[in-house]
Amino acid sequence: xxAGRLLLIPDGPASLLYATELVNQLRRRGYSLQVxxxxxxxxxxxxxxxxxxxxxxxxxxxRAIESLDEAAFREQDLILLGPVSPRVFSIFCQGKALSxxxxxxxxxxxxxxxxxxxEPLPHKEGGSFAQLMPPGSRLLTGSVPHGLGALGNxxxxxxxxxxxxxxxxxxxxxxxxxxxxxxAGPTAEDLDPVRFLTNRSTxxxxxxxxxxxxxxxxxxxxxxGPVALPAPRLPRLTPLPVRSATQMxxxxxxxxxxxxxxxxxxxxxxxxxxxxxxxxxxKGEAQELSLPLKRTPDILATLGALPHRPxxxxxxxxxxxxxxxxxxKLRKKHCDLICANDVRKPGCGFATDTNQVTIxxxxxxxxxxxxxxxxxxxxxxxxxxxxxx
Length: 389
Ligand code: C5P
Hints:
This protein is α/β, with parallel strands linked by helices. Helices cover 31% and strands 23% of the residues. It is built from 13 helices and 21 strands. It is elongated and about 80 Å long. The structure holds cytidine-5'-monophosphate (C5P). Cytidine-5'-monophosphate is lined by residues 183, 245, 264, 266, 268, 296, 298-300, 314-316, 329.
Protein backbone atom coordinates (compact mmCIF):
# COMPACT_ATOMS: atom_id res chain seq x y z
CA UNK A 1 0.00 0.00 0.00
CA UNK A 2 1.21 3.45 -0.89
CA ALA A 3 1.40 5.99 1.93
CA GLY A 4 1.16 9.76 1.98
CA ARG A 5 -1.15 12.67 2.64
CA LEU A 6 -2.71 14.34 -0.37
CA LEU A 7 -4.77 17.49 -0.75
CA LEU A 8 -6.93 17.50 -3.88
CA ILE A 9 -8.22 20.81 -5.22
CA PRO A 10 -10.72 19.94 -7.96
CA ASP A 11 -12.57 22.43 -10.14
CA GLY A 12 -15.28 22.57 -12.78
CA PRO A 13 -17.36 19.89 -14.48
CA ALA A 14 -14.51 17.37 -14.52
CA SER A 15 -15.10 17.13 -10.76
CA LEU A 16 -18.23 15.15 -11.41
CA LEU A 17 -17.03 12.11 -13.31
CA TYR A 18 -13.25 12.37 -13.15
CA ALA A 19 -12.09 13.84 -9.82
CA THR A 20 -14.56 11.71 -7.84
CA GLU A 21 -13.16 8.54 -9.44
CA LEU A 22 -9.63 9.82 -8.86
CA VAL A 23 -10.47 10.14 -5.13
CA ASN A 24 -11.67 6.51 -5.12
CA GLN A 25 -8.56 5.22 -6.88
CA LEU A 26 -6.13 7.17 -4.70
CA ARG A 27 -7.84 5.94 -1.54
CA ARG A 28 -7.85 2.35 -2.79
CA ARG A 29 -4.12 2.68 -3.28
CA GLY A 30 -3.68 3.62 0.37
CA TYR A 31 -3.32 7.40 0.26
CA SER A 32 -5.00 9.60 2.85
CA LEU A 33 -6.89 12.30 1.04
CA GLN A 34 -8.48 15.63 1.88
CA VAL A 35 -10.45 17.64 -0.67
CA UNK A 36 -10.63 21.43 -0.92
CA UNK A 37 -13.15 21.91 -3.76
CA UNK A 38 -13.38 25.23 -5.54
CA UNK A 39 -16.51 27.16 -4.52
CA UNK A 40 -17.46 30.21 -6.55
CA UNK A 41 -20.49 31.50 -8.35
CA UNK A 42 -20.23 29.48 -11.53
CA UNK A 43 -19.16 25.97 -12.63
CA UNK A 44 -17.07 25.30 -9.52
CA UNK A 45 -16.34 21.89 -7.96
CA UNK A 46 -19.02 22.39 -5.28
CA UNK A 47 -21.56 23.37 -7.94
CA UNK A 48 -21.14 19.89 -9.46
CA UNK A 49 -20.41 17.79 -6.35
CA UNK A 50 -21.56 18.82 -2.88
CA UNK A 51 -19.18 19.21 0.06
CA UNK A 52 -20.95 16.30 1.74
CA UNK A 53 -20.25 14.08 -1.28
CA UNK A 54 -16.55 15.06 -1.31
CA UNK A 55 -16.30 14.38 2.44
CA UNK A 56 -18.04 11.01 2.05
CA UNK A 57 -15.79 9.94 -0.83
CA UNK A 58 -12.53 11.09 0.76
CA UNK A 59 -13.34 10.02 4.32
CA UNK A 60 -12.34 13.46 5.65
CA UNK A 61 -14.25 16.71 6.16
CA UNK A 62 -13.79 19.14 3.27
CA ARG A 63 -11.27 21.96 3.63
CA ALA A 64 -12.59 25.40 2.75
CA ILE A 65 -10.48 26.61 -0.15
CA GLU A 66 -10.14 30.13 1.32
CA SER A 67 -8.72 28.67 4.55
CA LEU A 68 -5.70 27.13 2.82
CA ASP A 69 -2.60 28.82 4.16
CA GLU A 70 1.05 27.88 4.46
CA ALA A 71 0.40 25.60 7.46
CA ALA A 72 -2.43 23.80 5.64
CA PHE A 73 -0.16 23.06 2.66
CA ARG A 74 2.74 22.08 4.91
CA GLU A 75 0.59 19.33 6.50
CA GLN A 76 0.44 17.57 3.12
CA ASP A 77 2.96 15.49 1.19
CA LEU A 78 1.54 16.47 -2.19
CA ILE A 79 -0.96 18.98 -3.53
CA LEU A 80 -3.08 17.70 -6.42
CA LEU A 81 -4.45 20.69 -8.23
CA GLY A 82 -7.08 19.64 -10.70
CA PRO A 83 -8.58 18.97 -12.97
CA VAL A 84 -8.66 22.71 -13.13
CA SER A 85 -9.43 24.92 -16.12
CA PRO A 86 -6.54 27.04 -17.43
CA ARG A 87 -8.48 30.18 -16.46
CA VAL A 88 -8.97 29.12 -12.82
CA PHE A 89 -5.39 27.88 -12.75
CA SER A 90 -4.17 31.34 -13.80
CA ILE A 91 -6.28 32.94 -11.06
CA PHE A 92 -4.83 30.46 -8.56
CA CYS A 93 -1.32 31.35 -9.71
CA GLN A 94 -1.93 35.01 -9.10
CA GLY A 95 -3.57 34.77 -5.69
CA LYS A 96 -2.22 34.40 -2.17
CA ALA A 97 -2.41 30.62 -2.50
CA LEU A 98 0.69 30.62 -4.68
CA SER A 99 2.85 32.38 -2.09
CA UNK A 100 1.58 29.97 0.60
CA UNK A 101 2.38 27.02 -1.66
CA UNK A 102 5.87 28.36 -2.36
CA UNK A 103 6.50 28.93 1.35
CA UNK A 104 5.26 25.43 2.27
CA UNK A 105 7.48 23.89 -0.41
CA UNK A 106 5.32 20.80 -1.00
CA UNK A 107 5.27 19.56 -4.61
CA UNK A 108 2.23 20.26 -6.75
CA UNK A 109 0.83 17.92 -9.39
CA UNK A 110 -1.39 20.07 -11.58
CA UNK A 111 -3.88 18.38 -13.93
CA UNK A 112 -5.09 20.56 -16.76
CA UNK A 113 -7.67 19.31 -19.25
CA UNK A 114 -6.56 20.02 -22.76
CA UNK A 115 -9.42 22.23 -23.92
CA UNK A 116 -7.85 24.07 -26.78
CA UNK A 117 -4.58 22.64 -28.01
CA UNK A 118 -3.31 26.13 -28.89
CA GLU A 119 -4.13 27.71 -25.55
CA PRO A 120 -0.89 28.86 -23.93
CA LEU A 121 -0.08 27.35 -20.54
CA PRO A 122 -1.04 29.65 -17.70
CA HIS A 123 1.71 31.86 -16.44
CA LYS A 124 2.22 34.89 -14.33
CA GLU A 125 4.61 37.65 -15.32
CA GLY A 126 6.27 35.32 -17.78
CA GLY A 127 7.07 32.70 -15.16
CA SER A 128 6.82 29.09 -16.34
CA PHE A 129 5.13 26.38 -14.32
CA ALA A 130 8.49 25.11 -13.07
CA GLN A 131 9.53 28.61 -11.98
CA LEU A 132 6.24 29.32 -10.22
CA MET A 133 5.68 26.06 -8.36
CA PRO A 134 7.70 24.48 -5.53
CA PRO A 135 10.58 22.18 -6.57
CA GLY A 136 9.55 18.76 -7.84
CA SER A 137 6.15 19.99 -9.10
CA ARG A 138 4.77 18.57 -12.33
CA LEU A 139 2.14 19.55 -14.85
CA LEU A 140 -0.02 16.91 -16.54
CA THR A 141 -2.22 17.78 -19.48
CA GLY A 142 -4.89 15.57 -20.99
CA SER A 143 -4.51 13.05 -23.74
CA VAL A 144 -7.36 10.59 -23.13
CA PRO A 145 -10.99 11.51 -23.94
CA HIS A 146 -13.16 11.20 -20.81
CA GLY A 147 -16.92 11.44 -21.38
CA LEU A 148 -18.65 14.09 -19.28
CA GLY A 149 -22.28 13.38 -20.20
CA ALA A 150 -23.99 16.28 -21.95
CA LEU A 151 -20.72 18.25 -21.89
CA GLY A 152 -19.11 15.80 -24.29
CA ASN A 153 -15.53 14.66 -24.06
CA UNK A 154 -12.72 16.33 -22.17
CA UNK A 155 -9.10 15.40 -22.80
CA UNK A 156 -7.63 14.37 -19.44
CA UNK A 157 -4.73 12.17 -18.34
CA UNK A 158 -5.55 8.50 -17.73
CA UNK A 159 -6.02 7.55 -14.07
CA UNK A 160 -3.07 5.17 -14.47
CA UNK A 161 -0.88 8.11 -15.50
CA UNK A 162 -1.99 10.26 -12.55
CA UNK A 163 -1.46 7.40 -10.06
CA UNK A 164 2.01 6.70 -11.50
CA UNK A 165 2.94 10.40 -11.15
CA UNK A 166 1.65 10.52 -7.55
CA UNK A 167 3.47 7.29 -6.68
CA UNK A 168 6.72 8.52 -8.18
CA UNK A 169 6.50 11.95 -6.51
CA UNK A 170 6.02 10.31 -3.12
CA UNK A 171 8.23 7.21 -3.45
CA UNK A 172 11.61 7.26 -1.70
CA UNK A 173 14.32 7.74 -4.33
CA UNK A 174 16.53 5.10 -2.73
CA UNK A 175 17.24 3.36 -6.06
CA UNK A 176 18.30 6.58 -7.83
CA UNK A 177 21.25 5.93 -10.12
CA UNK A 178 20.92 2.13 -9.95
CA UNK A 179 20.49 0.01 -13.07
CA UNK A 180 18.20 -2.97 -12.67
CA UNK A 181 17.37 -5.80 -15.06
CA UNK A 182 14.21 -7.80 -14.36
CA UNK A 183 12.87 -10.85 -16.17
CA ALA A 184 9.15 -11.54 -15.94
CA GLY A 185 6.31 -13.66 -17.29
CA PRO A 186 6.38 -17.02 -19.05
CA THR A 187 8.25 -18.00 -22.18
CA ALA A 188 6.61 -19.57 -25.24
CA GLU A 189 8.38 -22.42 -27.02
CA ASP A 190 7.07 -22.88 -30.54
CA LEU A 191 6.27 -26.36 -31.83
CA ASP A 192 5.05 -25.24 -35.23
CA PRO A 193 3.58 -22.01 -36.68
CA VAL A 194 0.39 -22.57 -34.64
CA ARG A 195 1.27 -24.27 -31.35
CA PHE A 196 3.61 -23.61 -28.48
CA LEU A 197 4.51 -24.77 -24.96
CA THR A 198 4.11 -22.26 -22.13
CA ASN A 199 3.05 -21.98 -18.47
CA ARG A 200 0.62 -20.14 -16.19
CA SER A 201 2.83 -17.17 -15.29
CA THR A 202 1.09 -13.79 -15.82
CA UNK A 203 4.10 -11.56 -15.21
CA UNK A 204 2.41 -9.79 -12.24
CA UNK A 205 5.25 -10.32 -9.74
CA UNK A 206 8.01 -9.26 -12.15
CA UNK A 207 6.01 -6.25 -13.36
CA UNK A 208 5.39 -5.16 -9.74
CA UNK A 209 9.16 -5.35 -9.09
CA UNK A 210 9.91 -3.33 -12.24
CA UNK A 211 7.31 -0.69 -11.37
CA UNK A 212 8.50 -0.28 -7.78
CA UNK A 213 12.18 -0.10 -8.77
CA UNK A 214 11.43 2.56 -11.44
CA UNK A 215 9.30 4.60 -9.02
CA UNK A 216 12.17 4.49 -6.53
CA UNK A 217 14.52 6.00 -9.08
CA UNK A 218 16.13 2.98 -10.78
CA UNK A 219 16.74 2.68 -14.51
CA UNK A 220 14.87 -0.55 -15.27
CA UNK A 221 15.13 -2.94 -18.20
CA UNK A 222 12.14 -5.29 -18.08
CA UNK A 223 12.72 -8.37 -20.25
CA UNK A 224 9.40 -10.15 -20.41
CA GLY A 225 7.77 -13.07 -22.18
CA PRO A 226 4.33 -12.99 -23.86
CA VAL A 227 1.76 -11.75 -21.31
CA ALA A 228 -1.75 -10.30 -21.44
CA LEU A 229 -0.86 -7.61 -18.89
CA PRO A 230 0.35 -4.32 -20.40
CA ALA A 231 3.92 -3.50 -19.31
CA PRO A 232 4.06 -0.57 -16.86
CA ARG A 233 4.49 2.76 -18.66
CA LEU A 234 6.79 4.80 -16.46
CA PRO A 235 9.75 7.10 -16.93
CA ARG A 236 13.04 5.16 -16.60
CA LEU A 237 11.35 1.81 -17.38
CA THR A 238 12.13 0.13 -20.70
CA PRO A 239 10.15 -3.01 -21.57
CA LEU A 240 11.92 -5.51 -23.81
CA PRO A 241 9.43 -8.13 -25.01
CA VAL A 242 10.76 -11.55 -26.02
CA ARG A 243 9.11 -14.88 -26.77
CA SER A 244 11.25 -17.93 -26.08
CA ALA A 245 13.73 -18.91 -23.36
CA THR A 246 16.52 -18.64 -25.93
CA GLN A 247 15.50 -15.06 -26.80
CA MET A 248 15.23 -14.15 -23.10
CA UNK A 249 18.68 -15.62 -22.52
CA UNK A 250 20.07 -13.60 -25.44
CA UNK A 251 18.45 -10.35 -24.20
CA UNK A 252 19.90 -10.85 -20.70
CA UNK A 253 23.35 -11.70 -22.13
CA UNK A 254 23.24 -8.51 -24.24
CA UNK A 255 22.51 -6.28 -21.25
CA UNK A 256 23.79 -7.77 -17.97
CA UNK A 257 27.09 -5.91 -18.07
CA UNK A 258 25.45 -2.48 -17.58
CA UNK A 259 23.43 -3.61 -14.52
CA UNK A 260 23.92 -3.20 -10.76
CA UNK A 261 21.19 -5.72 -10.02
CA UNK A 262 19.43 -8.54 -11.88
CA UNK A 263 16.17 -10.03 -10.55
CA UNK A 264 15.12 -13.08 -12.52
CA UNK A 265 11.43 -13.52 -11.80
CA UNK A 266 10.43 -15.09 -15.14
CA UNK A 267 8.98 -18.59 -15.27
CA UNK A 268 11.33 -19.78 -18.00
CA UNK A 269 10.49 -23.04 -19.79
CA UNK A 270 12.95 -25.77 -18.84
CA UNK A 271 12.55 -27.56 -22.19
CA UNK A 272 11.94 -26.50 -25.76
CA UNK A 273 11.06 -28.60 -28.82
CA UNK A 274 14.14 -30.11 -30.43
CA UNK A 275 12.89 -28.69 -33.74
CA UNK A 276 10.19 -26.18 -34.53
CA UNK A 277 8.24 -27.55 -37.52
CA UNK A 278 8.06 -25.12 -40.44
CA UNK A 279 4.52 -26.17 -41.29
CA UNK A 280 1.63 -27.17 -39.04
CA UNK A 281 2.08 -30.66 -37.59
CA UNK A 282 -0.71 -32.86 -39.01
CA LYS A 283 -2.47 -35.34 -36.72
CA GLY A 284 -2.99 -37.88 -39.55
CA GLU A 285 -4.18 -41.19 -38.14
CA ALA A 286 -1.81 -41.10 -35.10
CA GLN A 287 -3.32 -41.98 -31.69
CA GLU A 288 -0.19 -40.88 -29.81
CA LEU A 289 2.46 -38.29 -30.41
CA SER A 290 5.83 -37.91 -28.73
CA LEU A 291 7.64 -34.61 -28.95
CA PRO A 292 11.40 -34.66 -28.49
CA LEU A 293 12.43 -31.78 -26.21
CA LYS A 294 15.80 -30.32 -25.27
CA ARG A 295 16.91 -28.22 -22.29
CA THR A 296 16.72 -24.44 -22.53
CA PRO A 297 19.63 -22.29 -21.39
CA ASP A 298 19.43 -21.61 -17.62
CA ILE A 299 19.72 -17.81 -17.53
CA LEU A 300 20.07 -17.55 -13.74
CA ALA A 301 22.78 -20.22 -13.58
CA THR A 302 24.61 -18.62 -16.53
CA LEU A 303 24.69 -15.23 -14.76
CA GLY A 304 25.60 -16.87 -11.44
CA ALA A 305 28.70 -18.41 -13.02
CA LEU A 306 30.06 -15.09 -14.33
CA PRO A 307 32.94 -13.57 -12.35
CA HIS A 308 31.85 -9.88 -12.40
CA ARG A 309 28.13 -10.27 -12.45
CA PRO A 310 25.52 -7.87 -10.98
CA UNK A 311 23.91 -8.59 -7.59
CA UNK A 312 21.77 -11.59 -8.46
CA UNK A 313 18.30 -12.47 -7.20
CA UNK A 314 16.38 -15.58 -8.27
CA UNK A 315 12.89 -16.88 -7.63
CA UNK A 316 11.92 -20.41 -6.65
CA UNK A 317 8.32 -21.52 -7.05
CA UNK A 318 8.08 -24.79 -5.12
CA UNK A 319 5.30 -27.20 -4.25
CA UNK A 320 7.09 -29.23 -1.55
CA UNK A 321 10.04 -28.80 0.84
CA UNK A 322 10.00 -25.14 -0.16
CA UNK A 323 12.89 -23.86 1.93
CA UNK A 324 15.17 -26.86 1.43
CA UNK A 325 14.66 -26.82 -2.35
CA UNK A 326 15.15 -23.07 -2.54
CA UNK A 327 18.37 -23.32 -0.47
CA UNK A 328 19.66 -25.89 -2.95
CA LYS A 329 18.83 -23.58 -5.86
CA LEU A 330 20.50 -20.62 -4.12
CA ARG A 331 23.79 -22.53 -3.89
CA LYS A 332 23.58 -24.37 -7.21
CA LYS A 333 22.86 -21.21 -9.23
CA HIS A 334 25.19 -18.96 -7.14
CA CYS A 335 22.60 -16.26 -6.39
CA ASP A 336 22.94 -13.59 -3.71
CA LEU A 337 19.29 -13.98 -2.71
CA ILE A 338 16.45 -16.27 -3.63
CA CYS A 339 12.75 -15.53 -3.11
CA ALA A 340 10.89 -18.76 -2.45
CA ASN A 341 7.17 -19.29 -2.51
CA ASP A 342 4.90 -22.29 -2.02
CA VAL A 343 2.68 -22.42 -5.11
CA ARG A 344 0.20 -24.71 -3.30
CA LYS A 345 -0.61 -22.14 -0.59
CA PRO A 346 -3.84 -20.15 -1.13
CA GLY A 347 -3.10 -16.66 -2.43
CA CYS A 348 0.39 -17.59 -3.68
CA GLY A 349 2.00 -18.14 -7.02
CA PHE A 350 0.60 -17.81 -10.54
CA ALA A 351 -2.32 -15.57 -11.54
CA THR A 352 -3.00 -14.29 -8.00
CA ASP A 353 -2.78 -10.67 -6.85
CA THR A 354 -1.04 -11.70 -3.63
CA ASN A 355 2.07 -13.65 -2.74
CA GLN A 356 3.90 -14.94 0.31
CA VAL A 357 7.62 -15.02 -0.11
CA THR A 358 10.54 -16.21 2.00
CA ILE A 359 13.85 -14.53 1.24
CA UNK A 360 16.88 -16.77 1.55
CA UNK A 361 20.50 -15.64 1.58
CA UNK A 362 23.64 -17.80 1.92
CA UNK A 363 24.70 -16.01 5.11
CA UNK A 364 21.49 -15.16 6.99
CA UNK A 365 18.44 -16.87 8.51
CA UNK A 366 15.36 -17.03 6.25
CA UNK A 367 13.19 -13.91 6.18
CA UNK A 368 9.48 -14.83 6.04
CA UNK A 369 7.40 -12.00 4.56
CA UNK A 370 3.65 -12.07 5.31
CA UNK A 371 1.01 -12.72 2.62
CA UNK A 372 0.63 -9.35 0.89
CA UNK A 373 -0.26 -7.85 -2.47
CA UNK A 374 2.39 -8.43 -5.13
CA UNK A 375 3.09 -4.65 -5.10
CA UNK A 376 3.84 -4.76 -1.37
CA UNK A 377 5.90 -7.94 -1.71
CA UNK A 378 7.89 -6.25 -4.51
CA UNK A 379 8.52 -3.22 -2.28
CA UNK A 380 9.74 -5.39 0.62
CA UNK A 381 12.01 -7.48 -1.65
CA UNK A 382 13.59 -4.33 -3.12
CA UNK A 383 14.14 -2.86 0.36
CA UNK A 384 15.79 -6.11 1.48
CA UNK A 385 18.03 -6.13 -1.62
CA UNK A 386 19.02 -2.50 -1.01
CA UNK A 387 20.24 -3.34 2.50
CA UNK A 388 22.69 -5.78 0.91
CA UNK A 389 23.66 -4.05 -2.34
O1 C5P B 1 15.25 -24.22 -11.41
P1 C5P B 1 14.08 -23.30 -11.43
O2 C5P B 1 13.47 -23.15 -12.80
O3 C5P B 1 13.03 -23.59 -10.38
O4 C5P B 1 14.71 -21.90 -11.03
C1 C5P B 1 13.92 -20.75 -10.92
C2 C5P B 1 14.77 -19.53 -11.08
O5 C5P B 1 15.67 -19.69 -12.18
C3 C5P B 1 13.96 -18.31 -11.41
O6 C5P B 1 14.64 -17.18 -10.91
C4 C5P B 1 13.96 -18.32 -12.95
O7 C5P B 1 13.73 -17.05 -13.50
C5 C5P B 1 15.36 -18.81 -13.23
N1 C5P B 1 15.48 -19.58 -14.48
C6 C5P B 1 16.20 -19.07 -15.54
N2 C5P B 1 16.37 -19.80 -16.69
C7 C5P B 1 15.84 -21.02 -16.80
C8 C5P B 1 15.09 -21.57 -15.74
C9 C5P B 1 14.94 -20.83 -14.60
O8 C5P B 1 16.68 -17.92 -15.43
N3 C5P B 1 15.99 -21.70 -17.93
